[in-house]
Amino acid sequence: MLSKKEWYFFHKIIGIALILIGLISYLFPIPGSTLLVALGFVWLIGKDKTLFFLKEVLGKKIFKLLKIKKVVKDI
Known about the structure:
- The protein has 75 residues and is mainly α.
- The chain has one domain (4-74).
- Helices cover 81% and strands 0% of the residues.
- The protein contains five helices and no strands.
- Helix 1 packs antiparallel against helix 2, helix 2 (33-45) packs across helix 3 (47-58) and helix 3 (47-58) runs antiparallel to helix 5.
- The protein is flat, with a radius of gyration of 14 Å.
């Protein structure tokens, strides 16, 4: 069984790996590469911080238009 510190480290490694795989696969016509990046951010920094980050980067109108809050909450 992993301790809390080991689990935290493992969680961060998985998040970074998902982001990197998503960015690399974005260069090739592989479906779902953008979802891997979003999933990586959720694993790395959590749902609430990911939503805040995306809202700040995209702006409130685009954030609502794309319904990103619903997508991230479903992950």
